[in-house]
Give the backbone structure.
Amino acid sequence: MEKNSLESTPVKIALWEIDLDPGRFCMSFDFRLEQLKASIEEFGVLNPPYLMEDSESHYTVVAGYRRLLAAKELGWSDIVCQVLPHGYPPFKAFLLNLYDNLLQRKMNAIEKAMVLQRLTRFVEHEQIITQFMPMLDIPANRQTLKLFLGLEGLEEPIRHSISAERLSLRVAGPMMSLDTKDRLKINELFMAFKWSFNQQWEAIQWIMEIASREGRSIEEVINEREVTEILHSNRMSNPQKLKTIVKVLKTRRFPSLMKAESEFIKGVSALPLPERVKIIPPPSFEGINYRLEIVFTKGKELKEKLADLYSLSGLERVTDFWKTSNGNVH
Amino acid sequence: MKQFTIRRILIERGAESDSLAKVIPKRLPDIPKELVDSHDLALPEGTEEMDKESLRIIHHKGEFLKPCPGTKRYICCGYQILNIGINCPMDCSYCFLQSYINQPSLRVYTNLPEKLDEIGEYIDSFPGRIFRIGTGEFTDSLALNYLTGWTDYLLPVFSHRKNCILELKTKTSSVQSLLKSIHRERIVVAWSLNSPRVVTGEERKTASLRERILAAHDCQKAGFVLAFHFDPLFYYPRWDEDLEEPVRLLEKYIDPESIIWISLGSFRYMPALKWAIKRRFPKTKIFDGEFVTGLDRKLRYFKPIRIEMYSKLAERLKKWHEDLGIYLCMESGDVWKQSFGWSPKTSINLSRYLDNRVRKLMVG
């Protein structure tokens, strides 16, 4: 790349002359201005924003978008800015802002998506993957690029959830294939409580698959009474609500498996097992080996528990508890 | 014979002098050809990620004959894969290749004819062992045969060897070249079968169920031994009623006496495949069932569902004929036992069972 020797002119410009909508160079989303305003009030604007003059004697912000917004909120009427010369290449102007941002702060996922989206106007996808994605600390591959390029198309509440790191980026992928109503509904559900990213990932798959299987919309699945009653319950805490919703969704998604698990628990609970003794089934009953867990303090206690187990009637039926009388829970 | 759309032929450097690399382009005289490097994988603008309309001619540097990797911790059949190429011009939504291959285009290995003597010598060096060999694992055994002439040079090599069989697995009805061949011995022609709903909804560009069975009928009449694979089975409402159709067609057109085996397997997939499929087929319903993580990390239907599918279908097939060599692909001993009432218990025993089918059906 050609060496970038920046020649710009400091000019005092009225704020009304500057277009303060997020423009083609903007890479800021979901920010708070309080700290910046406090600093500007105390010390002024240390680094002047960079602008480009457009043909109608208005200015487009290249760098310093947030400084300008802070100045406006502080009631300033004008501000000293650096104005880039006429004909300054837009790609260079974009890079100026990008490097300025990368040096100063950590970008959130939506801001990174804004960078990648704007880069597509200037360079090929291949160059974005090899040169810019590593710079933004994003796994450099086509699939991830596609994911990030889709983020800007998501509705604002969803983008806020992502930028605040409350909605998993992984979940955003499948959300893109849904219609607006459905994905806003999922976002609403995930913002209602503190879901872990793994829980979100499992739940979105369950919801989508329940909807597919039952020929219903996602909104309809989430709006079902069973879910909404939990959401609006006054008797449960938020963690309890989350746990119950996960269970409701899982039961609906995996009816046979959940029935088998419940039959197994019922069968084992009916056995008078010694204290601190557990029978653990293979995950999803896929394997054939069950585990016996005995917690003990002394060898004597272990011997007693083993003796109790030895004489316990019903133990021989343990692995069959989850099957019904015809050998099948299904 | 069905011909698929090929828009360009890419000949990788190093393959130019292989015999097949000279033959294939002549069979597609009007299609543009390009000499490319193996790392040059750029796709033309707008090309779908699997790039099923480019034929890439490759000099394969690896082994051609390899044991099927099978799957850990389930009973496998001890099959050998003859690697003739990878990717397929048909487009089944559930195809594992969508997450398995990391390079696009239909890929055909052109130095296979030159390697066949070596493969034959290897098989001959184990006279006491039976090699069950197939070409249909990474591609369809017959779909591109009209271009590659695979059957012309594979059949003579395998049909006169006493300790092997060659199984050609297909979802096409392209059997003309087989019917013209003078070789029958030790060649098994096999079809993948499914319910009409799966064939029409999920197996794009394949032959219809009826076309497959009629092609099988022609092959059987011409003296070939047959096999069928009900794999992957999908569980959905009235799946069993839907599977009546292929069984009914089998009953009508096929003599069960010369079927060497019928395998049953349910849909299973590595986690990455789900998203590869959803990207390409967002409306597919193949993931609607109850899938749980298997012992090999693949997702499978919850065990009782698999058992229900296998036992019902096997029971139905047995009503047609008692001795069909029915076996399960990549299943556990307890699923075998609960589905069929018996289990081979180990992969070695399943191999023996299928080897005995070879001995029984392939006289001489």
Observations:
- Residues 197-214 of chain A form the longest helix (18 residues).
- The CA atoms of residues 22 and 319 of chain A lie 63 Å apart.
